[in-house]
Design goal:
disordered C terminus, 690 residues, mainly beta
Length: 690
């Protein structure tokens, strides 16, 4: 089951069967252009080297790269099914060029491949003398390709047969041409990042690709070029680092060539991400970067429309159907992609869809419903009937409506009563209580941003702000006096860990390793009181864990210690792990793992019972004990099932996606929670038959 947020302001628009693509987390989605509803999803792995490319064959397709399988895949647009797959020996560099039924693709092993678009077979391979820095471009005649070498040259490649026709020596330094080359009619444009704060746009006469290209001129611009320059008619727009754009007028007529700068525009400082540009009619162009904006190329300047929409960090290139753009963006701290349709003239849209929101916490209600809280501020409540059906779930979503100016990730913590608490920071910090039924209480204003997720005691929630610990009642109106840390420096160290040790007790550990044992004191003036304090030397490296009457703590030297809960004195130690990634307790024993080994320790003596080489399988989430077996979900999607006493591994499945919350029990079954919130029922994990 894949949960997604979908909202429409106009429900009268009927689907026309046209789809556009969205990249979010490790998947490619197809979304209806009129309704915004997802039609299908295909898992292709994280950070693909290029976005899906439209193909115009007998069956409309999208060409994409599956990083998990190292395959080039052509999928049907209507249902996502593969038309063909082609295994590649090396990963592609940049987007493929499609021309006359052939795919031209550059790979990291210095090869240019020619692949038949209809059947996916490799028909020719050209191995270059050095690495190629980006995708090839087609010359004006359609008979040659140009590609920039990693250092000092441009290759001119004849299409048939596929062979190098000429080499132009450019003297550019290694890696100085990250942006694709651009054809401007007879001219070839290369953007060279030769200075730290500027770049030069170099033109070459590409009329005769069979010989070295003569230089035609150049222009220097402020900022470096990493993204694709865009040309339409006589106008060229070059996106520049620092959220700048430069517009040029180009004339490629032989003997009368012109390359004239019209103007530049800087939107704002401090942005170093991608810039996606689309040129349109009436000398207009649109930019997706920190928002979606419209510009006009005037006679001697670039003018910005003061209106802008879709605030957020751009996540993918622009797509357009008619007069509508489709814009993907994400927040500064979350990986979920907000996908929106925007009219290019009015800068308004009718729907938005959130895909790929990473889950932060999962609650299981008494009725078998699942409440999924995401880092994007959306809470999904999935009924048991929907879990049985599978598919994409668009209903029962609550948007917490966080401000677009929010820069820091939220705190999400499970409460001891089965619910959860969500806290945002910024200039207006707020707190939401989420119940296991799916109900979300109205937000509560907080006096200051928190430095750690809240911890629930019987009297309320412990809130840790700078130099202060507060207790806020969840149900009643009981007031408590705050505890303030002694002022020993101009800036108080941040709270690094909070750990509940009893109904009315907890530990608060700051970043310097100062550990405070705290209690709730009821009386005429109810308050938080410090009972004891010690300096943990070295300080804690991962969140500590409460175990019976002890505290399990891993320090920055990778040593695990068991401390007495009251005296905070060390009672046992274990020093056999590397850089610890996780710590958990299960059935009077301790699980500890680093990047190489998962170990089971005796909880009392902290001696090793068994160890399991992980071989790249990193556990995530909480372990689950079922019928004397320990179940773990791993980052790479593999499921571990281990005998509790011996650590012997039982053969298990591998889920198709990376996991973020590991595995969890829902009803009588075990489910894996993927990086985008997809829930997968784990095969052979039913009660009584793990």
């Amino acid at each position: 089951v894949l949960p997604a947020l979908h909202a429409r302001s106009r429900t009268s628009d009927a689907s026309l069967g046209r789809l556009v693509w969205v990249l979010a987390q490790d998947s490619c989605y197809a979304v209806d252009t009129m309704t915004g509803e997802p039609a299908w999803r295909r898992v292709i792995g994280f950070d693909p080297p290029f976005s899906p490319v439209d193909t115009r064959g007998d069956v409309p397709g999208w060409l994409m790269y599956d990083r998990r399988a190292s395959e080039l895949v052509l999928c049907r647009v209507d249902n996502g099914k593969a038309l063909w797959r082609q295994s590649l020996a090396a990963e592609p560099i940049g987007s493929p060029l499609i021309d006359e039924g052939q795919i031209y693709l550059v790979t990291k092993n210095r090869e240019l491949l020619r692949i038949d678009l209809e059947i996916g077979t490799v028909s020719a391979v050209l191995t270059c003398s050095q690495a190629i820095s980006g995708p090839p471009v087609l010359d004006a005649s359609g008979q040659y390709l140009f590609a920039a070498g990693h250092r000092g040259l441009i290759y001119a490649v004849r299409k048939r047969p596929l062979e190098c026709a000429a080499v132009t020596f450019t003297d550019h330094s290694a890696g100085a041409v990250p942006a694709p080359l651009t054809i401007l009619g007879r001219l070839l444009l290369m953007a060279e990042n030769d200075h730290a704060s500027s770049s030069r746009l170099r033109l070459w006469d590409a009329a005769d690709p069979s010989n070295p290209l003569p230089p035609e001129g150049e222009s220097r611009v402020s900022g470096q070029v990493y993204d694709l320059p865009v040309v339409r008619g006589p106008h060229l727009v070059v996106p520049l680092q620092g959220e700048r754009v430069a517009a040029f007028v180009v004339n490629d007529e032989a003997g009368r060539s012109e390359f004239k700068e019209v103007g530049t525009y800087r939107v704002q400082d401090g942005y170093t991400g991608p810039l996606h540009v689309a040129l349109g009619p009436d000398q207009q162009f649109w930019l997706s970067s920190t928002a979606f904006r419209r510009f006009e190329i005037a006679a001697d300047s670039v003018r910005l429309d003061p209106n802008f929409v879709a605030v957020g960090l751009t996540s993918q290139p622009l797509q357009a159907v008619g007069e509508t753009f489709f814009v993907g963006r994400r927040s500064r701290f979350a990986e979920g992609v907000q996908f929106t349709n925007i009219d290019r003239n009015t800068l308004t849209g009718t729907w938005r869809t959130l895909l790929g929101a990473r889950p932060k916490e999962l609650l299981v209600g008494a009725g078998g419903n699942v409440v999924l809280i995401t880092e994007s501020g959306v809470v999904f409540n999935i009924p048991p009937s929907r879990l049985a059906q599978g598919g994409i779930e668009l209903g029962a979503a609550t948007d917490l409506d966080w401000p677009v100016s929010l820069n820091d990730p939220p705190f999400v913590a499970r409460r001891s009563d089965g619910g959860a608490v969500v806290v945002t920071g910024g200039n207006s910090p707020r707190m939401w209580l989420v119940e296991s039924t799916g109900r979300v209480a109205p937000p509560t204003e907080l006096p200051a941003p928190l430095e750690h997720p809240p911890v629930q005691l019987s009297a309320g929630l412990v809130l840790a702000s700078s130099g202060r610990l507060s207790l806020r009642s969840v149900q009643g109106s009981q007031k408590f006096e705050d505890w303030r840390a002694p002022v020993e420096a101009e800036q108080q160290p941040r709270w690094a860990h909070l750990l509940k040790t009893g109904d009315e007790e907890f530990l608060a550990i700051n970043a310097d390793g100062r550990c405070h044992r705290m209690q709730v004191r009821m009386g005429e003036i109810s308050h938080l009181a410090q009972v004891a304090a010690i300096d943990l030397n070295p300080p804690a490296a991962v969140p500590p864990v409460s175990w019976e009457e002890s505290i399990l703590l891993v320090d920055v030297d990778h040593k695990l210690r068991r401390l007495n809960q009251r005296t905070l004195e060390t009672e046992a130690e274990f020093a056999g792990a590397g850089a610890v990634l996780g710590l958990a307790t299960i059935d009077r024993r301790v699980l500890i793992w680093d990047a190489d080994t998962l170990r089971m320790l005796d909880g009392e003596r902290l001696t090793e019972v068994w160890g399991l080489p992980l071989q790249g399988r990193i556990p995530v989430g909480r372990p689950v004990l079922r019928d004397a077996q320990i179940w773990f979900g791993c980052e790479n999607g593999e499921i571990l099932a281990l005998e509790c006493d011996t650590g012997r591994e039982s053969p298990q499945t591998s889920l198709p996606q990376a996991l973020s919350l590991g595995v969890i029990t829902i009803g009588d079954a075990l489910w894996g929670v993927a990086c985008d919130g997809t829930l997968y029922r784990v095969p052979q994990a039913k009660a009584g038959a793990p």
